[in-house]
Specification:
With 318 residues, this protein is of the alpha+beta class. The chain has helices spanning 2-23, 27-39, 45-65, 68-71; strands at residues 125-130, 134-140, 143-148, 157-159, 168-173, 176-180, 185-187, 190-191, 194-196, 201-205, 209-214, 223-227, 239-243, 247-250, 257-258, 266-271, 274-279, 287-288, 295-297, 300-308, 315-317.
Amino acid sequence: MNAERSTLESALHLAQQASQALHNDRFAEARVLVGRITQLGLAADWLTDCQARLDSLQECRQSLLSGPLGLISDGRMPAGITMTPDDAPRHPMHATAAAPGAAPPVHPAANSLLIESPGNGLPRRLVLRIDGVGTFLLLRGDRVTIGRAGPGATADLELFADLSERQAQIIRSGEDYFIAGVHGVELAGRKVEHALLQHDDRIRLGSRVKLRYLRPSSKSVTSLLDLGEGIRTTCESRRVVLWGGPLIMAPSRDAHVVLPGGTGGVVLLERDGQILAKPMSGHETPRTIALGSPLVIGDLRLSMAALDRSVSPGRVVG
């Protein structure tokens, strides 16, 4: 009875995740999650119907993307695709002038903050520096966009490479990560638009950008992106942390940040809008990390700061 109840609870949890993915138009993700429900040994006509309809949705989307509408990107009209003057979209400069006294139109990005926050007061992008170990870019939130660096860049992970403004995104759903992108995304040598990521997966963006996805610890959903040779970020980090749970720093291969041998391990946690550093040995009280101020804990000296967009390359604030 307990085993049956556990199976039903797992199925309900997966169904809730699949429903959320469906509501956000993440059809491939929903298809994977529905498939996991059937792997639990549960059978129902509506599950079979869901799988078939999700497959059909993906086929329709692929058909649209391979047609004229899908080929128009980055404001450029591909060769062989034309529109008559009556059908051509109006340029903002040709828009009707605002009535006297009316408020001028505001660009969507005009009021955006230079340092974004997912909602609990902490910046979305953080730079962690550990003396004698290295520099790490920490990205918070369930959705991380990847694109080119430069003036006007909007991606969470900005790379100095020949990419579009938002070439791809990595989405966390529960304990799973997915990669999504319409243009120039390859996973394990195969072009994909939306796919589940597995530990040690090799990702290729555009013609030259190579990334490696790592999930070193089963104790935390936090994952990593290792940048290929010659790929640079705005904070000169070679390892990107997709921070979704405890961030383990220890002299161990299954740590997110591997420390030199003999160094005491530390776990970084988010709690009530604060970042805490907790030693892995003993019963020491976790210590708060203040952005911009160095912290010595055990054998480690580290600092953390927000990554600003106001200049390029990215400026560390704090």
